[in-house]
Structure formats: structure tokens, C-alpha cells
Design a protein that fits this description.
One of its GO terms (cellular component) is cytoplasm. This protein is an alpha/beta fold and 348 residues long. It is 43% helix and 12% strand.
């Protein structure tokens, strides 16, 4: 039996000033985040007119994938749904169900494992199917792709272009960056039998693969966008602190590659293009940020290739020894205990 549609599943983002706080409340619901912190983050969005680029970029990427599907002769309509903002995945799945779909592939816009990067998308799938109820289609999530040659090649070319922007100066340091998570969440990422830390190990492997493809011998892997209370340890070092350290070591220019992101999330354009770039400028350092891969034609090719692994039985192309993970049905985790969400302490 074949597939009737592709559900493009993403994080979501506001598309106007009045949507910012409701969106942030959706993102943080149940987490006990103080309102002062929400207002602080809201200012980042208002800096860009209250609009996150993520929905537009997803729609552009969907259009590119639709063209690639047509070129490949694959009749598979693509539908867009989000976790945190319109179009909500529950509403999108209801529309797909009403159209008669029985089996649907799901592309989550994350290349990695871990709770936020993978299992939370499983929860989105489970929640959306529960909202639809009886008659909800079977949802098959596509696998993680951080080590796919098309992903690696697109990111490597973006790193080369960023170095060229700085004149290919020999002393320029390459810094790979990904969204930080609590150390406890990273320790719980992957199946328990694997020993945890799958997220940070995959980020390190992606950086290694991209650096090798781009011909870069010396590079760093750092983190960005931590949002938790200071007493909770998160993955470090932070990108801004690392720029300070590079300056202290005499590094005069830096290329930052957001290898953990597939598109220009608000975190990329704020934390890197503003905060990190401004800190580099304060030190008189050259700064260039590598583009995210979703605007590269190879990204659409990658998505279609992942689809064809299911529709045509294509073998999974990958460049690392990590298992091909993340492909599950109806929101089931990859394995028992895989990427368990953090248990929040009960309130008194």
C-alpha cells in the first residue's frame, strides 16, 4: 500500500506583532516560564516586526519539494502543519483525513535525535492523531538526516561561501553551532542502551563531516540559545562566550555555521546575526555566518530522496556509523526509553 500525502511538520512562528505573545505562551505552556522571560524573548521577535521567518521559509521549501516531486513523477500532495502556531498540525491532519488520506509520510524539520529534535515530533504526531480521533491516517515519520550526503554537501558549500566572504583568510576560525539543551536532556537522548548523549554526538559528527567536506582541519563545536534558569546546567560553551575566548587567543575572524538548524529560525537571526555578530564587531573581528541549507536546491532533493526510501525502497544514504533512526509509526518512540522527556518536579 502506498502513501497519500506528505505532512511537513515544523515548530511554527508568529507572523505579526499581535501573535508573538500567544505563540510564546504556546511554546512554554506547562513549563513555568516567568512572564518577564517571555516579554524579554518577545522583544527579539518585535525587533523583526513581530514576524519569524520560519513559516515563510517552510512554505518556500515546500514549494521546492513539490517541484522536485513533480519532476520525479511522484504524485504526493504536501501539507504544512506546526507544533506551536498556525497552521496547527491538528488542523492540518484533520484536513488530510477529510480528504481521504489513509497513510501519510511526515517530514519533521529537524535533522537530529534527542527529545526536542526528534521525540517531541513523535508527541506532535500522537497528539494530532488523538485530536482527529477515529479514522486518523497512519503517520510514518521520515528518518533523521544529519549525515545524509546532500545535507552535508549543502552545509559545506555554505561554510565555503562564508569563508570566501571574509576573503579566505588563513587564520579564520570555523565554529559550528547548535541549539543548546539541558545536560540532562542530552544525557537522555537516544536509546538507554546506547549510553545517551546522542544529540551532542550527532552534532559533533555532523560538524566533522561538514568540515571534512569543506577541507577545514581546525574547528570548534559550541552552543546557543539556552533559555533555562541559571541553576540548570546546559550544554556549553555559549557562542558569544566562545567569541570572547577566540578573541583572547588572538583569532581575528570567525565563520559561524548553525549546523544544528535547517532554516533561519529566530534563534539564528537573533542569537547569531545580532548578538554573536555584535560581539565579534566589538572585538574588531571579522564575522560571517554560513547560510542554513533549506534554501539550497539539495535540501528539496534530500526530502524527496527520504520519501523515495519509502515509496520505492531506495537504500538509506548516510555518511556516519550512527544508526538510521527517527522513522517511527503513529508517534511511537524509536526504542523503549529513547529520548525520554525530562520529568518536571511536582509543584507544592
Amino acid at each position: 500500500m502506498g502513501y497519500d500525502a506528505l505532512l511537513w511538520l515544523s515548530f511554527g512562528g508568529p507572523e505579526g506583532p499581535d501573535e508573538v505573545m500567544p505563540f510564546l505562551e504556546n511554546v512554554t505552556r506547562g513549563r513555568g516560564v516567568p512572564r518577564e522571560r517571555l516579554l524579554e524573548v518577545a522583544e527579539h521577535y518585535q525587533h523583526f516586526g513581530g514576524v519569524s521567518p520560519i513559516n515563510r521559509l517552510n512554505r518556500d521549501a515546500i514549494s521546492a519539494v513539490e517541484k522536485q516531486l513533480a519532476t520525479a513523477g511522484i504524485d504526493l500532495p504536501v501539507h504544512f502543519g506546526n507544533r506551536n502556531w498556525r497552521p496547527m498540525v491538528e488542523d492540518t491532519l484533520a484536513e488530510i483525513t477529510k480528504a481521504g488520506a489513509r497513510r501519510v509520510l511526515v517530514f519533521p524539520t529537524s535533522a537530529y535525535g534527542g527529545y526536542s529534535a526528534c521525540r517531541q515530533y513523535d508527541e506532535d504526531i500522537e497528539r494530532a492523531r488523538a485530536a482527529v480521533g477515529d479514522g486518523a491516517p497512519e503517520l510514518v515519520k521520515l528518518r533523521q538526516f544529519f549525515d545524509h550526503p546532500l545535507f552535508v554537501g549543502a552545509v559545506a558549500d555554505a561554510v565555503r561561501a562564508a569563508h570566501a566572504e571574509l576573503g579566505n583568510e588563513p587564520g579564520t576560525r570555523t565554529v559550528f553551532c547548535a541549539h543548546s539543551v539541558p545536560e540532562s536532556a542530552d544525557a537522555a537522548s537516544g536509546p538507554p542502551s546506547e549510553g545517551g548523549h546522542r544529540y551532542s554526538r550527532q552534532i559533533a559528527e555532523a560538524a566533522r563531516l561538514v568540515a571534512a567536506e569543506a577541507g577545514i582541519e581546525t574547528y570548534d563545536v559550541v552552543w546557543q540559545s539556552r533559555s533555562g534558569p541559571p541553576q540548570v546546567p546546559w550544554l556549553e560553551p555559549d557562542i558569544v562566550d566562545h567569541i570572547d575566548a577566540l578573541h583572547a587567543d588572538g583569532v581575528t575572524s570567525v565563520v559561524v555555521c548553525p549546523v544544528g538548524f535547517v532554516s533561519d529560525h529566530l534563534e539564528v537571526i537573533w542569537d547569531l546575526d545580532n548578538e554573536a555578530a555584535e560581539r565579534a564587531a566589538e572585538h574588531g573581528m571579522g564575522f560571517a555566518r554560513a547560510a542554513t541549507p533549506d534554501t539550497d536546491p539539495r535540501f528539496a532533493e534530500l526530502v524527496v530522496e527520504l520519501i523515495r526510501e519509502h515509496t520505492e525502497g531506495l537504500p538509506a544514504r548516510k555518511l556516519s556509523p550512527f544508526p538510521a533512526a527517527g522513522c517511527t509509526v503513529n508517534g511511537a518512540p524509536c526504542a523503549v526509553g529513547c529520548c525520554e522527556p525530562a520529568k518536571r518536579p511536582a509543584r507544592p
